[in-house]
Amino acid sequence: MSKEQRAKIDAMLRAPAPAGPRSVEEIRSGFAALMDTMIVPEDIRTAEATLGGRRALRVEPAGEPRPGTILYFHGGSFVFGSPETALSLTGNLVARTGLTALSLDYRLAPEHPFPAASDDSLEAYRALLESGADPSAVAFAGDSAGGGLAVTTCLRARAAGLPMPAAIVAFSPGLDGTRTGESMRTKAAADPILTREGLDHTGAMYFAGQDPHQELISPAVLADLTGFPPMLLQVGTNELLLDDSTRLAARARAAGVDVVLDVTADVPHVFQCFAGVLNEADQALDRAALFLTQQVRLGNPNQRS
């Protein structure tokens, strides 16, 4: 356990912020500045792409990629973030697996509230399949809100009659717009990043008056996960959203879905982005890469449709 590393990151994340609600522009620019400080692997290359009518960032290993695609959904409470802010995560997954990632630039609230991001994620997966991708060689991955999209895109795909991908990897996923998890209360002091007030602020932009009691917003408490592919949920104990992952894992088990609930002690929300600085981040990414390489393979005999 890297106590000094974790303490340094916690202190950095607790640095005083301007008082009161910030504008959307301030939230977006502040998050972009923070994520620009993260370490991105050197042995990758990026290129512009289009997927389902939306911009995407293609992230590939420097050498010959192995067959398979990670369809990645960035975090940011559905209000901020971009493929560029998630590059430390996609870059590390690509460098560790040899797979290609397509990181989707889905529409954001408040300009485009729910279900715009969900619509974009479904169309991206549909376009990937229509381009000839084998679903047994496609994995969904995402962080925070994007981790939630990785789950709900499977719900949308199943409803649309599309085949399931090979796997889901979700880093600190946001899976409960009702905010009813016990960790929303018990982890309030431990979480150096998220606050209930902040989640309510961005949530209001995303929900735009809609009831969060629906499976595409709160899958941890409402979704039927029957027929889902194997899932890896990684989360830290110092998170308001801890119970989003623990409750989804319980629902997955109840539905007969293979699920790995990977909980790391004393680390913050989406701690994996601190790869190269925090030992636990690199170790978690290694575990995620192993999971992906085990699940993503052409002609996977365990593929569910």
From TrEMBL:
Keyword rRNA-binding: no
Family in the record: Belongs to the 'GDXG' lipolytic enzyme family.
UniProt entry keywords in alphabetical sequence: Hydrolase
Sections of the chain in a coiled coil: none
Pfam family, one: Abhydrolase_3
InterPro entries: AB_hydrolase_3 (IPR013094), AB_hydrolase_fold (IPR029058), GDXG_lipolytic_enzyme (IPR050300), Lipase_GDXG_HIS_AS (IPR002168), Lipase_GDXG_put_SER_AS (IPR033140)
Domain Alpha/beta hydrolase fold-3 positions: 70-272
Higher taxonomy: Bacteria, Bacillati, Actinomycetota, Actinomycetes, Pseudonocardiales
PANTHER family xref list: AB HYDROLASE SUPERFAMILY PROTEIN C4A8.06C, ACETYL-HYDROLASE LIPR-RELATED
Protein's UniProt name: Acetyl esterase/lipase
Enzyme active site: S144
Keyword Hydrolase on entry: yes
